[in-house]
Design a protein that fits this description.
mainly beta, eight-stranded antiparallel β-sheet, 2 domains, 1 helix, 263 residues, five-stranded antiparallel β-sheet
Length: 263
């Protein structure tokens, strides 16, 4: 085949392809053809600061009381310590973890936490706690975003602050020094299940730690187990839990906790 003939055939093929693409478009396409006007997004008033709750948030702790929280063990009123606008883990015998009275499915969550300036211990015994994004029952591990002092504190990376415990290390470590407030901003997408209780879609989480992206739409492998391999167990909605870990380091504090339910 001559060069001229091959060039002619190639040009003919391009012309044919262009004609086919043009045929797929409306004869008189207009910008309005691809404009969507309804439904109009609901107006939400943002908080006065980046940390303040927006107008559609459910405030879980505003410094005044524990009305939105119960004991994770028996659902009696929460018995942590509220003082000067701060919620502090109670180390009293038998108090343990607390969880929200309400159950949630998909949501945006804001949590601020602090380890004491005089924190002691090392590794996992240095301000250990956790935000359980779905507390599926007293006998289940649930899905934990780790809370820990990771400022110059070495431990396994999928157990440091902002890890999805035992599953995903944070992309970076933006932890502030002990005594300073830390911030988690979380988007949680719950898993879905088939009629036979098998997994349909996994849970996903995105986390900003002190304004820095540390978990980017991570797909969980199941519950965040301390020992063993993760697995999924069907649930529809669940409380959010804060952990009283029980180690000997000084207790953690929390403030300014709010959540926005997502459809």
């Amino acid at each position: 085949m001559s060069i001229r003939l091959s060039q002619f055939l190639a040009l003919a093929a391009l012309v044919s392809m262009a004609a086919a693409l043009a045929a797929q478009q409306p004869a008189k396409a207009k910008p309005e053809d691809t404009e969507v006007w309804q439904p109009v997004p609901k107006i939400v008033t943002p908080g006065a600061t980046d940390a303040a709750p927006p107008s559609d948030a459910i405030v879980l702790f505003d410094g005044k009381n524990q009305d939105e929280w119960v004991s994770a063990q028996d659902h009696s009123p929460a018995k942590w310590v509220v003082s000067n606008g701060i919620l502090t883990v109670s180390k009293a015998p038998g108090v343990g973890n607390i969880e929200t009275r309400r159950k949630f499915r998909n949501y945006q969550l804001h949590v601020e936490w602090r380890v004491p300036e005089n924190i002691t211990g090392s590794g996992q015994a240095r301000g250990n706690s956790g935000v359980f994004l779905a507390s599926t029952g007293p006998g289940d591990d649930g899905y934990e975003l780790q809370v820990l002092d990771s400022y110059n504190n070495t431990t396994y990376v999928n157990g440091q602050a902002a890890s999805i415990y035992k599953q995903s290390a944070p992309l970076v470590n933006p932890d502030r020094k002990p005594g300073e407030w830390q911030t988690y901003d979380i988007v949680w997408t719950a898993p879905t299940f088939n009629a036979d209780d098998s997994l349909k879609t996994p849970a996903c989480v995105t986390v900003f730690f002190n304004g820095v992206l540390v978990q980017n739409h991570f797909e969980l492998k199941g519950q965040t187990l301390y020992i063993g391999q993760p697995f999924y167990k069907k649930y529809e909605s669940a409380p959010i839990k804060l952990q009283a870990h029980g180690d000997k380091s000084e207790p953690l504090s929390f403030r300014n906790i709010w959540v926005r339910e997502l459809n």
